[in-house]
Amino acid sequence: MAKNGFLLFNFLSFILFLPMSILGGAITSQDDRKASMDICFSALVVLNFLMVHIVYLGSLFRGEYETSSQHQSILQEVIGDSSVENVLVRSYKRSFNGFAAKLTDHERQKLASMEGVVSVFPSRTLQLHTTRSWDFMGLNQSITRKRSVESDIIVGVIDSGIWPESESFSDEGFGPAPKKWKGACKGGRNFTCNNKIIGARYYTTDDISGNTARDIQGHGTHTASTASGNEVKDASFFGVGQGTARGGVPSARIAAYKVCSPELGCAETAILGAFDDAIADGVDIITISLGGQNTLNFTQDVIAIGSFHAMAKGVLTLHSAGNSGPFIGSTVSVAPWLMSVAASNTDRLFVDKVVLGSGQTLVGYSINSFSSKGKTFPLVDGMDVSRPCESDFDPQLCTDGQGCIDSRLAKGKIVICQSFDGFNEVHKAGAEGSVSLNDVEFNKVSSVVSLPAVALNEDNFNSIYSYLKSTKKPEANILSTEAVKDSEAPVVADFSSRGPNEIVPDILKPDISAPGVDILAAFSPLGAVSDDPEDKRQAKFNVVSGTSMSCPHAAGVAAYVKSFHPDWSPSAIKSAIMTTAWPMNSSKNKDAEFAFGSGHINPVEAVNPGLVYETFEQDYIIMLCSMGYDERNIGKISGNISTCPKGSDKATPKDLNYPSMAAQVSPGKSFTINFPRTVTNVGLANSTYKAKILQNSKIVSIKVVPESLSFKSLNEKKSFSVTVTGKGLPNGAIVSTSLMWSDGNHRVRSPIV
């Protein structure tokens, strides 16, 4: 009944939508609607117009192969001598019975009168929101905004540059740059700023990039538009994910700082120079989606150093946690004065399917914009289409780069490879498609492919091999990518780097999780859309995954919060985001807080957190002193001559007034840990907050003193302490609970790890 109701809704929606779309005018009355419907349907009949219809046949009672044959037989009876391949769009054969086909009105009527056909109705084209991530987080297009204040927010993007001609950066409707802006447009050759991109600088001078801030890789354009790109309708990657693209703060301004190039990478000298300029230029937020492979001492970490200076000047830096997961301790973004962002998925999942000649459908992952138009091709093993090579070529993997796939044997076929990277070689050989093992072990992550290709999990991959070996003439058809709903979201991506913090174990990292899987955003037409050198397509928008994508989401949220609270410190904004985050399910994220930090970002709640934990430059200096940094080494970070206050040698990093609480303890030994904290009231002037421990472990006991905090004014501060005791933890164990302060209107949650 639910499915029938959904199909009926599609039909009725189509009836109301079609006349408006065809006639191009508003329908204001029932009579107008009926008249326009008559006109439209009459026009379709006269023109013998082909339209995609869904033919619903009811419950499934045959096997998948029999059902496919049934669909072809029914359709052939209706269309006569025409080819079924040309009109059959898709078969429904796993949960219910039906198919979609391109039909004339006469064919539709004929089908509807056939025995066994439940209904025949037009298929609507439903538009997804391309940046589904913002709607998923609750920051939809109708949310309350302070656009005039938002227009004064400047987001500094330290990345690979920007493509200024992208629609995402049009300055239509924008006034002059904010008066506080002190930067310049030094974008170099053939680069022009506008009232959206108000500043640009470049720090790369290699032969490929040239002397320009123009983005030729696509990465910087993608991150900038994710944070604060304009609303762009009908954006897609060659039809995949079509909808309206937008950033978190579309009214904000952008300043681009190009520090990366294909030839030189991202030089630390350039990165530090970009921080230097961005702070002086007057940006409000910095987003930087790059990093090294190894965690460095703060004195050698240019991002830690640059972001410390930014913090001291009132600028919050958002930094990607890294893509070295799921290994424990792999995050390189560990400084407490910046915000480290992990990557998680949204409830929109891009999947691809391969339909075998037996009728079996296997589901995998890829961003495949190609259409085979229902045509099937011979299916072969990579071993059977390879030629002898002198290199260390593995024909089952299809990876080499030396052209060891024999194009004479591969052409016109779908090649099976045991490595996802094999699709490059298969494409170069002229094959029609590729089916590969998802050997990178990144679950539910889709990558752009240069030909019809799909990556399958091990079970599905074994199924296709079984079919290959048991069939005389195996064949398959790879369908285009489609979007489905993922009810398990959000889950931290496998590639997202994990904690604990290798430099300061008592500071929990990452801080927060944000959408970073299958994100569609603006792209440079000069950037490579896939990893295949033979892929020469150019795209205005592209689908990319990584903590590089989650970081600008968090930056957009930080800018959104700042538009409501322009005078808030970087730590107040950071605290608001962390303490209002959605709790994430540790059963779906095995590394728990080491994967997602305080939880999944929740922008709507972050503007009204109730209480905030604030830290300032001197607090971080005391923390560095407690770690054993002397005045000389602290100066390498802060740039100032700083002395360690009296008593700081007795402090510990966990004493820092951080929104989360973490401590590393010795395995097997009893422990008592104390976390002193101070909160500032930014909610209701007269309010009382009561503490509640959200306990999910019996291994530790937790006491909060005092258990209630009463405030009589805004910006009033109150202190408390959290004491955690335990009898000893197993080696490598992670135990976590949460402290929540609530006044009945606000919920201020801090993980205790």
TrEMBL record:
One of the GO BP terms on file: proteolysis
Residues covered by the Inhibitor I9 domain: 53-129
Taxonomic classification: Eukaryota, Viridiplantae, Streptophyta, Embryophyta, Tracheophyta
Organism field: Citrus sinensis
Record-annotated Peptidase S8/S53 domain positions: 151-599
PANTHER family with a match to the protein in the record: PROPROTEIN CONVERTASE SUBTILISIN/KEXIN
GO molecular function, one term: serine-type endopeptidase activity
Residue numbers annotated as active site: D159, H219, S548
Subtilisin-like protease fibronectin type-III domain ranges (all copies): 655-753
Signal peptide, first to last residue: none
Sequence similarity: Belongs to the peptidase S8 family.
Database matches in InterPro entries: Peptidase_S8/S53_dom (IPR000209), Peptidase_S8/S53_dom_sf (IPR036852), Peptidase_S8_Ser-AS (IPR023828), Peptidase_S8_subtilisin-rel (IPR015500), Peptidases_S8_3 (IPR034197), S8pro/Inhibitor_I9 (IPR010259), S8pro/Inhibitor_I9_sf (IPR037045), SBT (IPR045051)
Domain of life, per lineage: Eukaryota
This protein's name: Uncharacterized protein
PROSITE patterns: SUBTILASE, SUBTILASE_SER
Segments crossing the lipid bilayer: 6-27, 39-61
Keywords carried by this UniProt record: Hydrolase, Membrane, Protease, Serine protease, Signal, Transmembrane, Transmembrane helix
GO cellular component, one term: extracellular region
